[in-house]
Design goal:
40% of the residues lie in helices and 15% in strands. A hairpin with a 4-residue loop joins strand 1 and strand 2.
Length: 566
Amino acid sequence: MHNALLHRGPDETYSFSTPQISIKLARLAMNGLTDGWQPAEDRSGRYVALTNGEIYNAADLWDQALTAQQDHNRVDVAVIPELFAQYGPLGFERIDGQFATVIFDRVTGTLHLARDRFGICPLHYVLNGGHLHFCSELRPLVKHAPNSRRVDLTAVDQYLSLGNIVAPRTIVEGVCAVPPGCVVTATHSGSRTTRYWRYGDFRQEGRPLGGVREAVQAAVDSRLNAEVEIGAYLSGGLDSTILAAEAARLIDRPLQTFSVAFGEDQLLNEQRYQREVQAALGTEHHEVQCTPTDIAQQFEDMVRHCCYPQRETYNVASRMLSEMTNRHRVKGVISGEGADELFFGYDSYVFDGVLGTTPEDSRNEKAWGRADFAWEANWEVREKLLQTCLVPDAMESLRGREFHCDRLIPFSDHELTSLTRLQMRSICDVYIQLCGHLLGDHGDSMLMSSSVEGRYPFLANAVVEYALRTPDTAKVSDFEGKQCLRTAYRSLIPQAVLNRPKQGFTAYSFDDLDPGTTQRWRALVADCGLFNSDVFDALLASTNPKWDVTVSLTSISMLIDELGLT
């Protein structure tokens, strides 16, 4: 599996082996280039850890939270085994950063797999016959470790209904993703999952608006800390502009910024705003053009690489962006993911505030914990869509395993009664859309395919804490989200960006591609065995969700073929 992951860490390879376990880590070196190494151990030598990621508050943890002193190993993730030795799984809650770590207990032979609060760094595993196999990416794990090689129909239902797959599920039955904010502990007798943190414990305490700027600035500062070049993705929207503005003020050289443009297509192109921000900040700007030909030539390879279904084609543009970033010798970028979820930036928050409650449905209660709330789920449309898409055998096998049979957010019914609809939406946006998709296949997979690390200041502990304590009315007012951010940065970023409406990142549709390419993909869908052979034609006459389902069916069929699933 390791040789299939060298794009994630081309700088060094670390190994740890005993008669019980064998682990390899491909390192993308950002800090401790000459005086840091892995595996790292706690001072007793009991716990050994190999970790992918960054611990931005490592120095503070050594100074304030730990009784041990840092040894000569200067890599930031060396703090992890000491934290675990002193605090157990709850030690991870103290970390401000992003990580996927494997910790081996030499005394008990127990293995612990853990991910950061939001699951920025991926970690998949399969437990088979008393053997645990794990990997940062799904494709090498499925291809090299014993597993069912069966499609997870509940995951397919999740994707067709919600546009995302929610951890611990993956597209492969029995192959799991470690959930964000969790530790999976594996022993000879099985595994258990322990949650050490969750998003959504709102405390409505107003704060001065200046406080959010201080929190964001500190988060940007910590995420620029590296012994290599860190740049910034610049979409031309509010979030990326805020981060670029803070970064440009913090460094003593022109900030390198990176953007995607879409030619003359005014519905897709944000080039005007990107260039206005670049001029205002004086960044060293780089731009890559994405065309329909790029989508046609690269979409399938992108899907087979990330092994995650798609509902749009924009990940091709994201991958092109990371390739350009790598060519300019930039190893990390700050990016604005998380702002919309934490500060209620999507239009849906405005609609929820205006439209009020959803008709009660028992399926809502199972999935979300409240009968009067449904996240992006139209039950009538969903039922018609599944009947249109899935072959009868799949429909029958799905009965009793529908996505709404699982609780998709880490809250009990009682805990959810006091939350507002906007807070409920924020929790669902984080766990259903941000963690799996925006930080996963859209973030990590596309970035690390070119050996580039994504860093997300809006997900810093202090920024998240500020958001949780900020009243809904400070986030959404006058039919506009993220108002507290807009107010705090009103005098610091171009007015054209500040006042522009929300525009999602998207790219060309299948309709823009040459018919020969899409016809070949239609044949792949017809042959995969999961979908009805006439599904593309049937979809034209049916009620569809808000995305192009043909993209989803095509990508799932590609995954079935790539992974050899049944």
